[in-house]
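haha ok so turns out i had the wrong file open the whole time. this is the CORRECT one, sorry everyone. sequence first:
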Amino acid sequence: MLIAAARLRTHRIIYPVPFILPSSQQLARRALYNPAMVTAPNRTSRSRLFLALSTLLSLTLVPGHLLCQVSSFDARAAQTASTSSALDREVHADMNFLADDDLHGRGSATRDEHIAALFAAAKFQALGLAPGGDSGTFLQKVALPSSLPQPTQQRLSHFEDTPRTQTWNAIAILRGTASPEEVVLLTAHLDHLGIGPANAQGDTIYNGADDDASGTTAVLALAQAFAAGPRPRRTIVFALFGSEEIGGYGNAAFLAHPPIPLTSIVANLEFEMIGRADPAIPADALWLTGFDRSDLGSELASHGAHLVADPHPTQNFFQRSDNYALARQGIIAHTVSSFSLHKDYHQPSDELAGIDFPHLTNSIASMIAPIQWLANTTWRPTWNPKGKP
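then structure:
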C-alpha cells in the first residue's frame, strides 16, 4: 500500500484503554499521539504517553520464559516447539509496527523515528527494565547540529522536506547481580530513510524492514527474553539508536552521555539487517563483522552461536554500522548480520513482504543462549593482534 507524503494523520490516545481490542497492529497504530507531544514533549505529556503505550503493550506482549527454555545449542530442537510460537508472534507484531507504511520509513530525526523510539521505550518499561535515558526516562533526546554536513544535506534534499533538529535513543538496563559493573551492550538503529523518490511502482516509503527494523526487533525480543528469566551476573544494556542513517548521531550521543561508564562495557553486539538469509553462508547462520579482529565471535560460536566470518570483506561492513564508533573507543564491538547484498537495500522495496520470518525468528532464538552465557561468565573478550581499530 502506498501512502503519499502529505498523508500525516493525527492520532490521539483515548482513555481508558478498552479491553476488547482489535489486532495488535491496529492497536499500535491507534496508539499514536498528538503531534504536539512530538515537537515539544514535556514531562507530563511524555509520561501520559508512556503510560498509555505501556498499557496497550501489556495487553499484547506474550509472556516469555525463553531463558529457562533455552539452555544449550544441543537442546535447540526440543526447545523450538515450546518457544517458537511466542517468539514468532512477538517478532511479527514488532516488525508489523516498525516497518508499516504508517511509520513512513522512520526517517532519521523525524516524527516517525520518534514514534519508533517511544514504542521501544514503552516496551522496555512494560518489561520492568530500568530506564537508561534522560531524567529517569527510557529516551535520550539528542540535538542535531544546526547545519548538517554538506553531503548529508545533499542526500536529504531528495527525501522528505522536514526539519531535522533532534533525534532519539531508547535505552533500558537490566542490572546484573554478582558483577553489575560489567556490561554487555546490545544495540540496533531505529531509523531508516523515510519518504523519498518514488520507485517504478510509485512507492515513496522507504520502510526499512530489513534495515533495520529487523535488528530493532531482535533487541526488543532479547530484552523480553532476558527480562523474563533470572537476572544475569553482568548488567545488560539495550540501546536503540536514532539517526544512524545520516551520520550516527544517536550513537555519538550515547558515547558522549552514556548511562553506564564506557569502560564497563565488556562487549557490544549490534544487530543489523538479519531479516533475510545470506546464501553465501550456511542457511541457519549469521555473520559477524570483523570476526577475526577479536576473540568474541569464536567464543560465542563455541557456546552455540551460529556465527561465521563476514563473507563480504570488501564491503567493509565492520566500519559501516554503529559498532564502529564504540570499537574506536576500545570496546569490543561487532555487528551481527545476514545481509546478502540484496537489491532492496535503501529502496522502497525493503518491505515486510521481503522478510524471511522463520529466518529472523530463528536467528534471534539462536543468540539467546550464547548471550546468556556471555552475561553470566567471568570471561572477557580481547582484541586480536592488529584487530583494534
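The chain has one domain: 24-376.
again sry for the mixup
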